[in-house]
Amino acid sequence: MTTPNTTLAAAGAATQPPGVLMAAEILEQPEALARQLDHGRPEIRRLAAVLRDADIRYVLLAARGTSDHAALYAKYLIETVLGLPAGLASPSSLTVYRAEPKMDGVLWLAVSQSGGSPTWWTPPPRPPAAARSPLR
Q1: Is the confidence at residue 8, as pLDDT, over 60?
Q2: What is the strand order of the sheet 86-88 is part of?
């Protein structure tokens, strides 16, 4: 099993024809999902139980770059499979402009295909009240 390194690949993306990096990332998806299921099954079950018991009325997805496409796909799945309204957030409204949106009943999902964005794992200085205990 290989370890994807899209950060290094992205650095060389300027020298590759358009679409090469995205195609490589797409081809990594089955192996990445298998890794998550192999190593994270207990945590996935715990998280699923927490989410089932939560009063979630809306899902807000935040992503940057190509991860925004994955978030858009997740939005359609959430709306059509779970029947919950969903939308895409502007991450900079929290990280740059320090907005404090009302988040009661909102499940905030940060999407990062590479896991390389440090801003996802560093909470804003004053996170919204409903985001005080993030599920990771």
Answers
A1: no
A2: 86-88, 58-63, 106-111
